[in-house]
Amino acid sequence: MFPIDDTVPRRQPAFVVWGLILINGAVFWYQISLTPQEAQALAYRWALVPLRYSDPAWGLAHGLDPNNYLPFLTNTFMHGGWAHIVGNMWTLWLFGSAVEDRLGHGRFLAFYLLSGLAASWTHYLFNAASPIPALGASGAIAGVIAGYALLFPRARIVFLVPVLFLPLFFDLPALVYAVAWYLLQVFQGALGLMRPELGGGIAWWAHAGGFVAGALLMLVLRRWIRVRRYFRDETRLGYGPGGERP
Length: 246
Description:
With 246 residues, this protein is mainly alpha-helical. The chain has one domain (2-235): Rhomboid-like fold, CATH 1.20.1540.10. The chain has 11 helices and 3 strands, in the order βααααααααββααα. The longest helix is centred in the middle third of the chain and has 22 residues, at 82-103. The two termini are 31 Å apart. The model has no long low-confidence stretch (mean pLDDT 90).
């Protein structure tokens, strides 16, 4: 099931979303230009390796400074393959452009980065003993999905499901999709804690942490931030300009 479209109108260009996509793309292009050994070294240096911080001696023994906390942010600009980055960047564009349109460029950037940091810290708390680098924008994008669902809970998200060789299309309300998506992350994260071999190498708790952070941030921003007036077609999809239901 892959989201391909929505019903939220945009009134402003999504400069920050495009900038984030370009930065992620440039970093990924650099990653794939490296040899496997160089790429691994880059991942250990700038992706999030929880054991680096929970066991400083281990970090120092592997040439990793445990006092350098930049990887909690820089890991969100790195990806592990083409499917990883394409899926993330498409989702960022689909949901992020509408959220940036409502929040404004600077506020959206702060919202995105804070969601990414919360995702990284959540991953660290649930995987403190892991020596495996975690990387990807998924946690920050999870915050964007939560923010989108709170701004436009009744917007319709169109999904594509390939059935054999035939495409199947259907739509869901944004809030239904977001809640179901979050519960899946928590379920998979809990399953990974009980049976790590079933975790699939995916940072499920980072997704959950980013989602919660995005939801909490948006609960504040939705009520107090005024970027521009609401239009009638937007209000039908969610909440009014003061956070009230229309």
